[in-house]
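DM from R.C. (forwarded with permission)

"hey, sorry to bug you on a friday — could you get me a structure for this? deadline for the figure draft is monday and I only need the backbone to look sensible"
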Amino acid sequence: MNEITTRAVSGGLYVAILTSAMFFSPLSFYLVIGVFSVLSLWEFQRLINFSSVLGPILLIGLFILAYLDLLSNGLIGFLAGLVVAQNCYLTYLCLSQKKPSYTFVLKSSFTLLYLISSSLFIPLLMGLSSPGAPYYLLIFYLSIWVNNTFAYLTGSQFGKTKLFQAISPKKSWEGYWGGTIATIGLLYFVENSFQLFGTLWWVIGLLIPLFATLGDFIQSYFKRRANVKDSGSLLPGHGGFYDRMDSVIYTAPFYYLLLKLV
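My reply, with the result:
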């Protein structure tokens, strides 16, 4: 198979597994996203040269506690604040091209608050959806997939103005706005059909492309520091699971907090 076909097949299988798990049962989604998150964590730790086994254990433990509904709202809110602060710091490092030393404390912070804790907010979205109808979660994934797809298509056809060449040379402002317009169109259709977000639908439509793009930038930042093209090779045509989940991991806590306002 050529690269485009390989990418389409592996991407389609990835999407099919996720969406099937969403609607089959909460447990199935926790299991699937837990496996994907552990693989992403493993790839991320390789990028920053951090070989601690505590990360996967902690991630699995948090997922189990979340599934059993043993995490209090206060703890989740506190964790969300820490995650947002960490992600804002990472955004600053990325956009300013700062290169701090990878100390043990910094590696631990990146692992715990950026990847592990951000990943936790993905399955937590199940709790904000109606039982058997995880529409908030589905729209979250659809929005990111639509944004990334149309950003790529628009950018490849019309992209001339570089968005942030130092981090991601192929991304353009034309692609960014193409993805954003498509995402807003999706959210407009969803809101008119299902009334899920109220007056905040357009805010979510604007912010998801922004956060998804920043998530992709941050992953590119870590890959450039590690001098590698992909975070792994487990997904043919896409690289690794971290390559596939970067936008989702970064965006999930912000989307979760937005939904708390709906």
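R.C.: lifesaver. The chain has one domain: 3-261.
me: no worries. Residues 159 and 174 are 5 Å apart (CA to CA).
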